[in-house]
Amino acid sequence: MDFPEKHIFVCENKRPPGAHRPSCGYKHSAEIRSLLRKKLSEKGLDKVYRVNKAGCLDKCEYGATVVIYPQGIWYGGVSVEDVDEILEKSILNDLIIERLSLNSREEPKTNE
Q1: Is residue 52 part of a domain?
Q2: Reported confidence tier of residue 112, pLDDT bands at 50, 70, 90
Q3: Chain Cα centroid distance, residue 95
Q4: Is residue 78 in a domain?
Q5: Could you tell me the pLDDT band of residue 25, with boundaries at 50, 70 and 90?
Q6: Residue 37 within any structural domain of the chain
Q7: 10, 36 in Cβ contact below 8 A?
Q8: Number of domains within the chain
Q9: What are the angstrom distances between the C-alpha of 53 and each of 18, 37, 57, 64, 95?
Q10: Parent domain of 43
Q11: In a domain, 103, yes or no
Q12: pLDDT interval class at 88 (50, 70, 90)
């Protein structure tokens, strides 16, 4: 049985309007996931790298959030325009895109 080399999770969680935290699902995450899947399929890599829809990844303030495993690369503020760069640099070449990286950012302060 073959297993994918990497899993890419894209948060598509949608909270109700007026919720106390933002939601990745309202920041084009479904489109981001769909585009990643399409581009990997076009390259014949959709069995090597698997793109999955995720529920809340608890980084809502940074959405849209994308996580690449097993490398443990966390990205926030991802837009549709970032998909090609994420694919080429991070998925295919294991490079970290610093401007999107959540791995080294401090958690935002909350009043809770």
Answers
A1: yes
A2: very low
A3: 15
A4: yes
A5: very high
A6: yes
A7: yes
A8: 1
A9: 23, 11, 11, 12, 22
A10: 6-91
A11: no
A12: very high
User: Domain of 33: which CATH number?
Assistant: 3.40.30.10
Residues 39 and 80: beta-carbon distance below 8 Å: no
- For position 36, what pLDDT does the model report? 98
Per-residue pLDDT for 30 more than 50? yes
Helix (H, G, I), strand (E, B) or coil at 107: coil
pTM summary value: 0.89
Structure-block tokens of residue 31: 């489109």
- Residue bearing the bigger pLDDT, 107 or 23: 23
Question: What are the tokens at 62?
Answer: 């940074």
Task: Retrieve residue 39's tokens.
Answer: 């581009």
Q: Which residues, 6+ apart, have CB-to-CB distance to 49 below 8 Å? A: 4, 5, 6, 7, 8, 40, 91
Which positions ≥6 away from 29 have C-beta within 8 Å? 10, 11, 12, 63, 64, 65, 78
51 or 63, which is more confident = 51
List the structure tokens of 100: 């999107």
